[in-house]
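Side project, low priority. Logging it here so it doesn't get lost.
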Amino acid sequence: MVPGVTLPASLLLVLQVTRPCFTKHSYQTFCHLVAGMVAQTGRRTVTGMLTGAGLSRLWPHRRAHAFFSEASWDPDRLGLRLARTVVEALLPADAPVLVVVDDILLHRVGKKVFGALWAHDGSGRGKDKPGFGNTWVIAAIVVRLPFLARPAALPVATRLWRGRATASRTDLALEMIHDLAALLPDRTLHVTGDAAYHCGKVADLPETVTFTTRLPRNAALFAPTPPRTGRRGRPRKKGAPLGPLTAIAQAATWRLTAVERYGRIEFVWISSIECLWYGAFRDLPVRLVLVRDLGAAKPYDLALISTDLNSPAEDLVERYGSRWPIESVFEHMRGQLGVGQACNRTRRAVERTVPFGLAVYTIVVLWYTAHGHHPADVTERRAWQPWYTTKATPAFADMVIKLRRTIIAARHIHNPAGQPGPEEIAAVVRAWEAAAA
């Protein structure tokens, strides 16, 4: 790669899947900035990545900035390449793909930052929770890793939401779903998101895609479309109104079942009926799933609406519960990788830096799964921090630390051609000792 700077062969094997997304020059820059973002323990600004890569004295800092603002590469194409790799490497053949969509506000400072505006910040303070920065809509594939007890989410697609200057967050999410469906035409995609992600364009999704979300309390539901009567005039598109959700829950037939939610097995009451959510999905047939916890005083605790009419109701409840790992992604990408700390302002740089950081997140998990995991990682962490008395599986921080150590070791162990290696030096030392004896 770069004279005097070596990357681990295991990391290069993972990065190789992204090679078609770049030119020769930009691919070299990409690989070293990925290593720099992982190896850096300070702020992950663009120059911070360059410093973490050990190239601050070998490359002009403009080369790192130009990678984001000028180089020829597409973050959407990069995400799709990683999506295919995630599906092929971590999911069984022909298994459905669970995709979670959500959005996050990354705070920025400055009037000239492209796309920055005041928006709702889910982690903010106050009644309205306002925040100034860039709002990103993210799609992640949920997988189960052999060394984790809970599912993990790997971000594979990103869109910048710019208020009225662009499509809505739901429209941006559906654009990414269309791209994933085109990439994986032979797979069924089960998409889930919170109550903010619903609109009539869900009906335009391919037949291989289902959509599950939480139903607002004020949603107006109707019975399925009645059969044609044969009379003159336009046929009815919806049946009789079903009333408020509270009335539907009181008249429902409930059954007790076990579901897995948020890493736990719970017993809950479930009721399911087919209906129409005409105000949002028009005449698209959907299924209402009501969930009530054991001993709950309320008529229901959770209401889900889904275009999946074939899966059991338990699977829909578990599917919606599986959206929680994307919240962990939001925490780890900021805390462990420093995504969003870059101070660039131009359009192309802003639109690429955060998708780059999310790609690094996915690359770290792919690398750790294929090359980095070892049972001793948890033992070492518990010996280092003994207060983690119940820690049984590695966290994302452990993955980053393991890869960081591997990157640093590769830099120092590398020997230029013609120079003796550690084994040769040890053999010479033994020979000297034997001769002296």
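Brief comment: Residues 208-226+235-314 form one domain.
Revisit when time allows.
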